[in-house]
Amino acid sequence: MNASTSAQHLVRPEDLPRGISAVRLLPDSQLDALWGSIIVKSEIKEQLLSQGILNFSLRTKVSRDKLPMHGVILLVGPPGTGKTTLARGLASQLAHFMPRAKPRLVEVDPHALTSSAMGKTQRSVSELFSQTIAELASSGPTIVLLDEVETLAADRSRMSLEANPVDIHRATDAVLVQLDALAERNPNILFIATSNFPQAIDDAFTSRCDLVVEVPPPAQEAVAQILEHCIDSLSEHFPALAKIAKSKDLAKVAQACEGLDGRALRKMVVNAMAQSREVAADPNKLTIDHLLSAAASAKAVRMQKGGAK
Ligand SMILES: Nc1ncnc2c1ncn2[C@@H]1O[C@H](COP(=O)(O)OP(=O)(O)OP(=O)(O)O)[C@@H](O)[C@H]1O
Ligand SMILES: [Mg+2]
Fold first, then answer.
1. Who contacts 99 (Cβ-Cβ below 8 Å, separation ≥6)?
2. Most buried one in 121, 156, 192, 234, CB count within 10 A?
């Protein structure tokens, strides 16, 4: 095991099969922490967990003619709203419900499949699902992260055949065929797909999803919680930040940040620490004014792009 391979990574990066970027043993405490770090309405997490539990409990018992489940959850929403993080966290959370099963998380790298030489995408996709994923699933419950799924299951009706190679069209066909085959044979697989461009996903893929969840940008109250959580977690290294995290004035910063997504909020905190060399050298010196100034800049950039209101 090399330095970059954590104890939870089952396969060394150089040994990963084509199209797979990681295979991890679950549960994983780092992924559990990620699940906790995403602040969304509790109903979203509850719905995801319930669907995941049901996937593994129901599909092994009830035949597909009674309940035609495909074992696919799709998370959609604007960039930076926590979809990928939630997907990884969900995988680990679900593992706590099957303590003896040693489930795994398999992460698919769609670009490694679609960037292959012309004419080979379809075969790569078919091999990934029918061989690699099916083999991994033969040893126990398997959760497969299909990040940026619009890359793999691109909407065939939107493709112009001149601009988009037939190969990509066939890749979507292959994904659909393979999903049907796996759904039939492997009730112990759960696919968690994410996309910030759901219009670009083929309708036949969306129709196979057992649950589609919209992950929205954080509302005002969630913005304040994300900021507090983010700054408070830094106080482990920079103790003076604990006071900022608890400050009543943080509400003003949250107000100035309204409309920013979770990623932009966390980056805003970094930008605030980079407001001066002094603070950069010692983040204990961060003040509410630094945060307000960084918030105004982040918001201005977002307004220029026509995002936040
Ligand atoms: N609701 C949230 N609460 C706390 N942190 C958040 C939230 N949303 C996003 N983040 C943070 O933003 C970063 C980006 O999250 P993530 O990559 O999961 O977003 P995404 O929705 O998958 O984005 P994209 O669509 O661009 O792939 C992470 O550090 C995550 O912790
Ligand atoms: Mg993502």
1. none
2. 192
